[in-house]
């Protein structure tokens, strides 16, 4: 069951450093499920549609190409993907936080 995978920032970083494409994909999908509150997120293309960041989307495309390539060449973009992910993650807040904010006044005045 892929939806049960939990996200670990260190596991994503390690997978990127070691260029382990399947581990990178698994970690990114786990992050996407948590970050976007999408328990049914199953593919990189779906994740890419949720991300508004050209650099990270480009890296997801390269990862997807590697995963589907008939040539078994070494994945060269682990470091670039990690950098794009860090930059995106620093500049965005999880959807969950955004959805809890409202324009309603507080229930009790202080």
What is the alpha-carbon Rg in Å? 16 Å
Number of helices: 6
For the secondary structure, the number of strands is 0
Uncertain runs are: 95-102
Mean pLDDT: 85
Category by helix and strand content: mainly alpha
Determine the N-to-C terminus distance.
47 Å
Helix percent band = 55-70%
Order of helices and strands: HHHHHH
- Estimate the strand proportion: under 5%
Quaternary structure of the protein: single chain
Main sheet specs: none
Shape: elongated
Report on this structure:
With 110 residues, the chain is mainly α. It has six helices and no strands. It has helices at residues 9-17, 21-35, 44-50, 54-68, 78-91, 95-100. It starts with 8 loop residues before the first helix and ends in a 10-residue tail after the last helix.
Topology:
Layout: H1 9-17, H2 21-35, H3 44-50, H4 54-68, H5 78-91, H6 95-100
Provide a compact summary of the structure.
The protein has 110 residues and is mostly helical.
List keywords for this structure.
mainly alpha, elongated, 6 helices, 110 residues
